[in-house]
Amino acid sequence: MLLEYFIFGLITFLMTGAQCEVTEVFAEAGSQAVLPCKCNPSASSPPAILWTQVNKGTVWRKLKSGLQYWGSSWTQKGVQRVRCPHSQFERNDFSLQINSVTEEDGGVYSCLVQHKDNSVENVVILRVIRVSVSSAVPISGDDLSITCKVTPWPSGAKVQWKLNNSPFYITVDRDTDKSVVMQKATRRLSGNWTCIVSYKGKEGRASASLSVKGIMQPPKDNTKLYAAVGSAVTLPCVFAPGLNPFGSEWEKLKSGTISKTALGQLPPSFSLSSQSSRMPWDKSARVEEVGYKDEGSYRCSGTIRRQKVTRTMQLVVAKIDSSTPSKTKAAVTLTCQLTDASDVTDYEWVRVTYDINGTQSVGPIQKGKTISISRESDEKWGEWACRFYGKEGILGNITYHVPLMAGLTGQKSKGLSHNTTAVAGLSILLVVLLLILVQMFKNHQRRKRIFQYPALETIVHTISNEREERERNQVKN
Predict the structure, then answer these.
(1) Is it true that domain 219-315 has CATH number 2.60.40.10?
(2) CA 145, CA 139: separation in Å to the nearest integer?
(3) Please, are residues 119 and 15 in contact by the beta-carbon 8 Å criterion?
(4) Interatomic CA distance for residues 201 and 22, integer angstroms
(5) Which CATH architecture group holds 2-128?
(6) Is the pLDDT of residue 453 over 60?
(7) Most exposed: 69, 216, 310, 349, by fewest CB within 10 Å?
């Protein structure tokens, strides 16, 4: 670098009337670079322009006659990569445009503008920035390096890294010609990496995309999944599309450890998802009926390119405990319990009701982990839901059905028994009285039918008496 400055200093000293300025320009590899060269107007006739790169000869030149020439190394597939727009010449702007910049284009350039009476020279240092990744398709767990290389490297420059527009802090060795990020490949490193180089008031940047292959869902280890007792839950284990892991398996870890030898027992209703309903890279599992003891850490794994990829997740189980305080047996207390409530920031309770069409509606929200419900009120019994929230929103919910009659105990139960006996006895008495009244009514109706024709009854009676008298007389004779 000192030699290059010495050469240009010598050229400047030998050129009578020449003015020399040094400009720093940063450009990302593959982009377009613009090397500035502006002069104050000093003559009406067209000047001669010469662009050269130190140690590599002529880049582009234009004679006063208007003829143009290009360096032989600046043609790519028959297309010139450099140009100097004539539309800017009237403004004394002779800037050089370089398309599809490469690392080899980095270096020191000279713009010499020759008028009839004097010459003006501008010196431009083009620094090309390129970000590269050690592996085109890294797998989770691989050694990963992301390199930011600047050609030529500016001694004393400040380097900053960003991942998805957020600062990524590393220790940078400023004595080398590049900045390197060394990490173990994980999903959190996927995204757009940007290297920002600051030097002498100028700033340049370059970017590269990184996609770490492996397990995409869950996105990170120790992801928490919430499920209610008795419900079904899916344990996700989805690899990147196109990957077909070998020897995939599920394990349950004992509490407080991630050791492979400290394994627990999978739930009784644990099963792998149906092969017909998932892609080869989907190794998810399902627990059909979650029990409170099914909580804990689970781990899925698979082998890709001889590299074992794993992901752990934590199943948090929720249940509702009910209790009846001794002093108020007509009330029930409901408590929302979670096996791990460390991420829970808020609880709320709502009463759920349904109309004749099955449409669901919820009542007023009540805050708190515990709620007390009166069983004597028809407005309180039924289905209650406990919702629990974290910093990013709702985590899950669980419902509980409070029956109207099930909790009536003690004096309330005795009172109910006495009332039932009294009602039964009164009912029997009413039935007996009703039967008596029916029989009396039947007898009355029969008498009424007989006495409707009294004269006929007298005639019948007289005839009967006469027949009896004749029969007696015959017997005497």
Answers:
(1) yes
(2) 13
(3) yes
(4) 13
(5) Sandwich (2.60)
(6) no
(7) 69
Residue type, 392: E
Q: Please state the length of the chain.
A: 477
Q: Is 373 helix (H, G, I), strand (E, B) or coil?
A: strand
pLDDT at 449: 57
Q: How far apart are CA 444 and CA 86, in angstroms?
A: 133
Give the strand pairing for 119-133 and 20-28: parallel
Q: Is the pLDDT of residue 421 over 80?
A: no
Domain 134-210 of CATH type 2.60.40.10: yes
User: The domain 324-402 belongs to what CATH superfamily?
Assistant: Immunoglobulins (2.60.40.10)
Query: What is the reported pLDDT for 8?
Result: 43
- Cα 151 from Cα 190, distance rounded (Å): 26
Residue 214 predicted with pLDDT over 70:
yes
Calculate Rg over the CA atoms of the chain.
49
Note the pTM of the prediction, 2 decimals: 0.59
DSSP secondary structure letter of residue 102: -
Do 212 and 185 meet the contact criterion of CB atoms below 8 Å apart?
A: yes
Contacts of 77 (CB under 8 A, 6+ apart): none
CB 368 within 8 A of CB 199: no
